[in-house]
Amino acid sequence: QPGREYWLVTEKPQPGMTQYDVDLFINGKWVRKFLDDETHVVLNVTKFLRTGPNKLVFIAKKRIDTEGRRSSSPKHYFRIVVGEGNSGGRNVMITRKLVDYKRTALEMKDFRDEITMGVH
Prior knowledge:
The protein is globular. It is mostly beta strands. The strands form two sheets. It has a four-stranded antiparallel β-sheet, with no helix packed on it. A four-stranded antiparallel β-sheet has the order 3-2-5-8, with no helix packed on it. The protein has strands at about 5-10, 20-25, 30-35, 40-45, 50-60, 75-90, 90-105, 110-120. It is built from no helices and eight strands.
């Protein structure tokens, strides 16, 4: 188990515009599905990590319903940041960013991205 705390934070200027839902797996274990229409998510992911290299797999699926695309602008994005951080009260401060994953409304295909992240 790592000696520090590791956090995941999502960022979207306008929730629901990219039409991507993202599943996250860490070291082969499913963490959760992050929905495009969710607002800001903050999640402690320390329990999924081990000291040394860790494999994060992001599976992003484009979800276009009967209404069609809501946007095709790269300004509409869905960003997931993972890093070392501290929590105090209701706030989390990421002090060292380790992963910065991003999908935009401009993109149309599904993605499966593997990122190796080192943990101390």
